[in-house]
Automatic annotation (TrEMBL):
The chain crosses the membrane at residues 12-34, 46-64, 76-92, 98-115, 135-157, 163-180, 201-221, 241-260, 272-289, 295-319, 331-354, 360-378. This is Major facilitator superfamily (MFS) profile domain-containing protein. One of its GO terms (cellular component) is plasma membrane. SUPFAM superfamilies: MFS general substrate transporter. InterPro entries: HcaT-like (IPR026032), MFS_assoc_dom (IPR024989), MFS_dom (IPR020846), MFS_trans_sf (IPR036259). Residues 146-395 form the Major facilitator superfamily (MFS) profile domain. Keywords: Cell inner membrane, Cell membrane, Membrane, Transmembrane, Transmembrane helix, Transport. It comes from Paenibacillus pini JCM 16418. It is a multi-pass membrane protein. It comes from the Bacteria. The keyword Electron transport does not apply.
């Protein structure tokens, strides 16, 4: 895979932008819980803070994505989202009351959650413009996540957890500056978006089954995402070691992205999704049994055969199932299921489970839900295969 650094400036600016916005993801998903713990909030309170953003983002993801499809602009909307994030983080840096932070973290998520699916949409459309796979752009998100996970961990280790919001301001500002250099992407299809057509597409049984399985898998993934830092803290890890654990997971998915870019089209999506779900179950089983922070870093490397395979395959599935003029809306709905609805459930019940039942029970529940997703994806594949065989025989 070749990365020309001068011939396609719009491609390179999008890579840089993708690199930086995953720094915001690192902060929001992994370091914000530590910051709230530093303020004295309990596990249940942190769970509520983690849940309220996904709740409101169930509406905002669709709102911003449908607005993007209707007005055929992604860049301008992303700039608005980043400005909104920066304002909310500035306010949050001065707050310490749980109830006030509850309000402002909700407003922050109003602007944060739609950013990644819109970036994925722009990456897909930009890659299509050059006849490439979107992975050549998305891989820079993994590199950015790895870099910021380690960098922020060491900065917070030196400056203290209280500096979290100031670091976030800097990362968002940098992302905004890069966003001004992006080339706006428009759908290749000239057809206007019609809600009635979108509704017909989303009512497909296979698509509904897919979203149900995604939801089952997303809950344990988001549970781990929200409480991995607190798990490591319980095991005696430093902020630097927490950064290394996130670095391990992010770096491990990069070679998988390259392999799937080269060979992924040779495999059907549903069997790959079933395999990733089974590996998630194994990963969380190991997490329930470990008592050493160093072992967590090794387990985090299973991110490659879990999220790495799942994410690329799921986006490929959505791209195949949903027409081009509905692309942002389709990925927005995927984000609602994967991030918003699952984040709400994992925050509300994951926080209480982690606090009251303990880490082992917390991860045993994650194992069960992951295995349920495995059964769902596999059974859908078997149904499709038997249906195809039956059609062929009848023909």
């Amino acid at each position: 895979m070749k990365f020309a650094m001068s011939a396609r400036p719009d491609l390179n600016w999008l890579r840089a932008f993708t690199f930086v916005i995953y720094g915001i993801t690192v902060l929001s998903s992994s370091y914000f819980p530590l910051y709230f713990s530093h303020l004295g909030f309990s596990g249940s309170q942190i769970g509520y803070l983690y849940a309220v953003g996904p709740f409101i983002s169930m509406f905002t993801n669709m709102f911003w994505s449908m607005t993007s499809d209707r007005y055929q602009t992604i860049q301008k909307i992303m700039m608005v989202l980043l400005i909104g994030q920066l304002v909310m983080i500035t306010f949050l840096s001065y707050m310490s009351s749980f109830y006030i932070i509850f309000i402002f973290i909700t407003m922050f998520n109003f602007f944060w959650y739609p950013l990644n699916p819109l970036t994925d949409t722009m990456a897909i459309q930009t890659a299509q413009r050059y006849g490439k796979n979107f992975i050549i752009i998305r891989v820079f998100g993994s590199i950015g996540y790895a870099f910021f996970a380690l960098f922020i961990g060491y900065v917070l280790g030196a400056a203290g957890t209280s500096s979290t919001m100031y670091i976030c301001m800097g990362v968002i500002t940098l992302a905004f500056l890069f966003s001004t250099r992006l080339r706006d992407s428009k759908a290749q299809s000239k057809k206007k978006m019609k809600i009635s057509e979108l509704w017909t597409i989303l009512r497909q049984k296979e698509l509904l089954w897919f979203f149900a399985c995604v939801f089952c898998l997303a809950i344990p993934y988001r549970m781990n995402d929200a409480f991995i830092a607190l798990t490591l803290k319980q095991l005696g890890a430093s902020e630097g070691l927490i950064g290394w654990s996130m670095l391990a997971s992010a770096v491990s998915e990069i070679p998988i992205f390259f392999l799937l870019n080269k060979y992924g089209d040779k495999f059907k999506e549903l069997p790959l999704l079933a395999f990733a779900s089974l590996m998630f179950a194994v990963r969380f089983l190991f997490m329930s049994m470990t008592h050493e922070p160093s072992m967590v870093i090794i387990i985090q490397m299973m991110h490659s055969v879990t999220f790495g395979i799942y994410y690329v395959t799921a986006v490929r599935y959505i791209t195949r199932m949903i027409p081009d003029q509905f692309r942002a809306t389709g990925l927005g709905l995927f984000a609602v299921v994967w991030s918003s609805a699952a984040g709400l459930m994992s925050g509300l019940f994951g926080g209480m489970l982690f606090e009251n039942a303990g880490r082992s029970s917390f991860y045993f529940v994650a194992v069960g839900l992951s295995f349920l997703a495995f059964i769902g994806f596999l059974s859908r594949h078997l149904l499709n295969s038997s249906g195809s065989t039956s059609t062929h025989m009848n023909g």
